Amino acid sequence: MTMNIDVTYTKSLKPKPIADNIAFGKHFSDHMAVIDYSEEKGWYDPRIVPYEPITLDPAAMIFHYGQTVFEGLKAYRTEDDRILLFRPEKNFRRLNLSSDRISIPTIDEEFALSCLKKLLEIEKDWIPTAEGNSLYIRPFIFSTEPNLSLAPSKTYQFMIILSPVGSYYKEGIQPVGIHVEDEYTRAVRGGTGTAKTAGNYAAAYKAQEKATQEGYSQVLWLDGVEKKYIEEVGSMNVFFKINGEVITPELSGSILEGITRMSIIEMLKDWGVPVIERRISLEELYDAYDKGQVEEAFGTGTAAVISPVGELNWDGRKMIINNKQIGELSQKLYDTLTGIQTGKVADPYDWTVEVK
Amino acid sequence: MTMNIDVTYTKSLKPKPIADNIAFGKHFSDHMAVIDYSEEKGWYDPRIVPYEPITLDPAAMIFHYGQTVFEGLKAYRTEDDRILLFRPEKNFRRLNLSSDRISIPTIDEEFALSCLKKLLEIEKDWIPTAEGNSLYIRPFIFSTEPNLSLAPSKTYQFMIILSPVGSYYKEGIQPVGIHVEDEYTRAVRGGTGTAKTAGNYAAAYKAQEKATQEGYSQVLWLDGVEKKYIEEVGSMNVFFKINGEVITPELSGSILEGITRMSIIEMLKDWGVPVIERRISLEELYDAYDKGQVEEAFGTGTAAVISPVGELNWDGRKMIINNKQIGELSQKLYDTLTGIQTGKVADPYDWTVEVK
């Protein structure tokens, strides 16, 4: 795709939220990127327009049969005022993998990324400068055809919206308490667990409600078949350091292939820390705990980067990890990865992409 | 809820589609019902307004995290010009059960039904009169809060739209061929399979694609855990008549509780036909077939009412049912149920509700 990206500028700029006090996902920049799709034209009319409402027929398929996928990534402003993205090509790759699962036509990944870069050039003043702040980027695609027939939509819209976000850890990193969910299921092999699609998230709220009621902040998800194996924590991938070795659940067909997950594994290998992707059951984890071998645990994702787990509760069987403190390795991973993302430490892996 | 339903009439009526040539789900009536929800007010401002587009912020949660539920039912016009609904209270009951699974606030079922009745009074000329035609009714709820935080929406909209539909069987009832799906999963216990929520439907297209490529019209879904037990056919419940007994998969926590399914079971019991809800594996079905005991098979749902299955293909193991003809019992169920729905035969069960 080598189409021209048409730009329409807004007539009135919005006030920007005050740094360090920015709630996640509630403020949006002045412009957004849009690309339309129809069966006849494919993806067409890429454009940057003022941030404005979406208007859809009440019969638009998104409201009924839910074909929609999304991505989440961040733009960081470096101390020397450069704009960095972190492995954005991986996000657009995954967007297409998600689309394929949900029967949405794929998009030219490089072109979608070039739209994002152009949008960021225009919106660069929306990238907060304060420590830990960033500009959250939300590409998404949704079905638009007004038709109640049960079949994939013939029309779609791709959009990118931008949202400045404050620091995830305003008061320092606090390990979280996790409720092990053994009733509700997030995903199962053959299902949509590997796709970033809306239905997975709505399905997870019910278990989150239970966790909150019990005083825990997140849910640990088990596999949908045997309800034995660990899959994810909240909307994050999960890692355990057990007896010197780092273990993360293997991509079994129901686990989201996190880009932070992938990067953590690559860093650990580079550092010579033993790391393995394999099935791990709750029983195995609790056995290791009883032997005093569970050293660290953490979730990984775009929002928190690293979210240490301080406590697990599996039907009353409680596990306190590393005295509810962030572990040494978790801290090093957090510092290095956020350092690379924000340009504070060298990027030996060539992960960051500068937006000029 | 005893709120007043405000009515705003459209200024220009649309032309109605020509009977017997009406494509499903593409034409919509002149008005729609709307009720808003906010945390502070609960459900409020019920109104009937001209059919018009929905306008939403691009960050509205429906586009990202997919909290949405829907229902489908039909209004029929009788030969003596009365308007009948079929067990509509069951649809609003199920809407609330779906909402509960997806963390959407429930709605007053009786009030929602009264909104539908009021809408139908205004739109009664949209109910087609031709044989087999009806007015398809689509109540749905979707999340509207503009917020990318991963938490249930604080605002929602409930809507009812109406779509005149032609006869499902324009050229008589044709038994369909079914592809047995053993790779993709529709639903699993603990998941959202019992809810009418958008994500389930988008997730099913991929398997439907495979079925279509192999020359079959629908997918037979197996359980997500063992991939052994029969769950549904396409978006319908499924029944088998084996050696004089009618068997349908029990509601296991991943099967939609169909209102047609429920009605078929009640009718069979009333007629003294042995009917049982239990797990049934594909192996059991094929064993019975080898013994010559599979007499009839059919799907049940609002759209088709009864959809006979003429052929199954499980990885090359083909089963031809009743010589690809509709079975005697299937035909009787179809005739009786559609007869009751359209007021042509007496309704001994008090299932129909007249809209005055």
UniProtKB/TrEMBL annotation, chains A, B:
<dbReference type="GO" id="GO:0009099">
    <property type="term" value="P:L-valine biosynthetic process"/>
</dbReference>
<feature type="modified residue" description="N6-(pyridoxal phosphate)lysine">
    <location>
        <position position="196"/>
    </location>
</feature>
<protein>
    <recommendedName>
        <fullName>Branched-chain-amino-acid aminotransferase</fullName>
        <ecNumber>2.6.1.42</ecNumber>
    </recommendedName>
</protein>
<dbReference type="InterPro" id="IPR036038">
    <property type="entry name" value="Aminotransferase-like"/>
</dbReference>
<comment type="pathway">
    <text>Amino-acid biosynthesis; L-isoleucine biosynthesis; L-isoleucine from 2-oxobutanoate: step 4/4.</text>
</comment>
<comment type="similarity">
    <text>Belongs to the class-IV pyridoxal-phosphate-dependent aminotransferase family.</text>
</comment>
<dbReference type="InterPro" id="IPR005786">
    <property type="entry name" value="B_amino_transII"/>
</dbReference>
<dbReference type="Pfam" id="PF01063">
    <property type="entry name" value="Aminotran_4"/>
</dbReference>
<dbReference type="GO" id="GO:0009098">
    <property type="term" value="P:L-leucine biosynthetic process"/>
</dbReference>
<dbReference type="InterPro" id="IPR001544">
    <property type="entry name" value="Aminotrans_IV"/>
</dbReference>
<dbReference type="InterPro" id="IPR043131">
    <property type="entry name" value="BCAT-like_N"/>
</dbReference>
<keyword id="KW-0100">Branched-chain amino acid biosynthesis</keyword>
<dbReference type="InterPro" id="IPR018300">
    <property type="entry name" value="Aminotrans_IV_CS"/>
</dbReference>
<keyword id="KW-0032">Aminotransferase</keyword>
<keyword id="KW-0028">Amino-acid biosynthesis</keyword>
<dbReference type="GO" id="GO:0009097">
    <property type="term" value="P:isoleucine biosynthetic process"/>
</dbReference>
<keyword id="KW-0663">Pyridoxal phosphate</keyword>
<dbReference type="InterPro" id="IPR033939">
    <property type="entry name" value="BCAT_family"/>
</dbReference>
<dbReference type="InterPro" id="IPR043132">
    <property type="entry name" value="BCAT-like_C"/>
</dbReference>
<dbReference type="GO" id="GO:0052654">
    <property type="term" value="F:L-leucine-2-oxoglutarate transaminase activity"/>
</dbReference>
<comment type="pathway">
    <text>Amino-acid biosynthesis; L-leucine biosynthesis; L-leucine from 3-methyl-2-oxobutanoate: step 4/4.</text>
</comment>
<keyword id="KW-0808">Transferase</keyword>
<dbReference type="GO" id="GO:0052656">
    <property type="term" value="F:L-isoleucine-2-oxoglutarate transaminase activity"/>
</dbReference>
<dbReference type="GO" id="GO:0052655">
    <property type="term" value="F:L-valine-2-oxoglutarate transaminase activity"/>
</dbReference>
